[in-house]
Amino acid sequence: MPLQYRRPGVYLEESLLVNPAEVSGAITVAAFVGACSQGPINEPILVESWSDFVARFGGFGSFADPKTPTKRVLSYLPYAVYSYFQSGGRNVYIIRAVPDDDTKDGDFATTVVNGTDTGPASLVAFTIQARSVGTWGANIKYDLAIQAAANAQGNTDPIFTLRILLRNSQGYDEVVETFPSLSVRGLDPGTRKVDSAVNDPFSGSAYVFITGVNDEQPNPVPTSGAPVALTGGVDPDLPSQADLQSSAALLTKVEGPIALNIVGYLSDASMADGSLAPTVWVGASVNSTAFPDRQDIFIINDNAPPRIPNQKSVDYMTAVNSPQYLGYGNDSYTASYTPWIIIPDPQSVGSTLSIPPGGGVAGVMARIDATIGVFRAPAGVIAGISNAVGVQTKFTDSELGTLNAGNINAIRSVVGAGISIMGARTRKTYGADRYVSPRRTLIYIKEVLRRSTQFAVFENNDQRLWAALRMGADRILRPLWEAGGLRGNSPAEAYYINCDETINTPTVIQSGEVRMEIGVALEYPAEFVVIRITQFDRGNFSSEVTPAA
């Protein structure tokens, strides 16, 4: 509350600072698109931890091919998400891709909860439905217990506890959720309507959804003996390459900068790391033209297939360079990474597994963004993929040079640093944004400016507004320069801001526009460190140039 200033002295007050240069939400969030056994279909879902991902989309392991149940499918989506969190990632959006066809998008597992009343002998109280389509819903069971009968202690409805059970990897049903003090109609004090409680988006169930609540019949009494399983789930068809790409386009619903990785799968899990694996590999990538209204989506492309055992690295490099897998050229919003990385198999102690590197790359980007800044290239000895123990292909120095010249970022073992990303190029061949860090710095600056200038909409377009815009932009760019994100010995060398009458002419003002021009000097990563050694021998000099990296 305001203080009364009566005596001379120093007064301390506390207030909430409302800063128009607020940058909350401007940090890049990863997004993965791929196939999995459960979860909402063709919808971006925010996941905040590995356990959250498992609850919503399932964990590791293969799942049955909907068209050929005897064949198993191995999706690398769970492994990409796991690598992302292991390498320093935080929040991530997941899209479970399926064909965009009503006849192929599967069906929900359900069960009807019956009740008894003076009317029909078998009265439907409500229906329990799995949260997402697929046969995984058959692993869900429910049971309930009556806490208080109708008309006992003035209750108008029976009060019951609903428990949700899920079959674990050992084949046992374990209770994963409990909802006490429920009733069908929720009329009594201290009770909750069953669908309101279970369907609550924040505190409700992660596994089931309540539909068809009977709130017209008086006193429906839900009954349950032994746990009852859900039935009738149908798996959706597997996504094709085109389906993966169209599902990725749904990220336009998500606000803020995104690092996108489309994760592929093997249509036959028995060929994992086998000689025929590339023939069953389904992967995809997109370029920035897939998001015509967005300039804040950076694409991590790891679309190359797994390497055939004993295949020469030069032959695999030829496959990586194939337009079929390499994706699109001259696009500064896309970066390609190879080869696949080797991680400890989370399902088998002592075993390893080869997976695409995109999840680990996204995790490294998130870690460096949080610890240093988006202006630091996600490459070098600090860019180690935490859960990687090897690479599927070890390229020679000559092959690494060829890959780098082709703007393909190699992942390799670095002494003292582990399995690290040793490339920082986008698919663009010229300009400052041919490197990942300048492009992502520009994405960051644009997003922060967009958020921090919202206050200017509908303000009077005069010198006061122009000064406020210049001040807001300076509060963004100066700290970025001080942190090392912009090049120059002074702010004047690092950036300029122009928002005055020279560009806001009367014609511009009358058209309802206010214009601001900003120039920034972006930092270039030191991609080649050259050490010149001069040999001195009694007044004679001879020199040679040694590349350090």
Which topology of the largest domain does CATH recognise? Rossmann fold
The CATH architecture of the largest domain would be 3-Layer(aba) Sandwich
Low-confidence segments, given as residue ranges, are 16-24
- Quick one: overall form? globular
User: Going across the major beta sheet, what is the strand order?
Assistant: 2-5-1-15-18-19-23-24
Amount of beta strand: 25-35%
Helix content: 10-25%
Number of strands: 28
Report the end-to-end length measured between terminal Cα atoms: 61 Å
The total count of helices amounts to 12
Question: What's the pLDDT, averaged over the residues?
Answer: 88
Q: In this structure, how is the largest beta sheet organized?
A: 8 strands, mixed
SS class: alpha+beta
**What's the gyration radius in Å?**
29 Å
Tally of structural domains: 3
Classified by CATH, the class of the largest domain is: Alpha Beta
